Amino acid sequence: MSHPLKDRAAVVTGSTSGIGLAIATLYARAGAKVMLNGLGDAAAIEQTRAALEKAAGVEVRYHGANMMKPAEIADLVATAEAAFGSVDILVNNAGIQHVAPVEDFPADKWDAIIAINLSSAFHATKAALPGMKKRRFGRIVNIASAHGLVASPNKSAYIASKHGLIGFTKAVAVEVAEHGVRANAICPGFVHTPLVQKQIEDRAREAGISEERAAKEIILAPQPTKEFVTVEQIAAMALYLASDAAAQINGASFSIDGGWTAR
Fold first, then answer.
1. pTM of the entire structure?
2. 71 near 88, Cβ under 8 Å?
3. Containing domain of residue 204, as a range?
4. Is 158 among the residues known to form the active site?
5. What is the pLDDT of residues 210-239, one digit of tens each?
6. What are the coiled-coil residue ranges (predicted)?
7. Which helix (H) or strand (E) covers residue 113, if one does?
8. Is 162 found in the same domain as 87?
């Protein structure tokens, strides 16, 4: 089917750039009405929204809910339901990162990471589930991480949040299994984002090597393929999980990490 999500409506958090925008774009091209959410320059966001709406030929809206504020998250879902008539697909993608040893980790950074990476998924899911259960259809796709399955030094809050997100995914999956709702998680490895590019530059400078070597030998050391995951690859999995073909996939976590967690 060229439009497997025709007549569906989706909310994608953290979708003004990166993974979230790639998922929102593919959903719109697949026929779904989409509610964007995230940070950025207002004019740039409107340009992105309008361009996607025109290119995909579906309704695309934007809501600026702060993922640290439960009331705003609830309003994001309610606004999408009012605008589209339903929220059939919820992608909990918003996330932040901070790197520091546990003993030096700022308490406010810990609280923010847990709030945005984990608690926001709870608040959005709580808001979306009543409508999904009533209509007996729902797809919840949580963007976790390879760090939801394994650990690395100096990322305690991020790792805790992503492990928690996978656990939350399983809990929701078993609760709603008889209501036509499915919850699954995607666990990407390293994606070549601007944040990762800065890490590459810093590590290359520190080690006195080229950026290409720093990327392959340091950043991508855990990934056997020595290749970055692309946002399009993650979006393709998110599309599959949102489709009717995934009707019996529930409570699962899908690694897209070049073999990192296979070690």
1. 0.97
2. no
3. 192-228
4. yes
5. 999 999 999 999 999 999 999 999 999 999
6. none
7. helix 107-114
8. yes
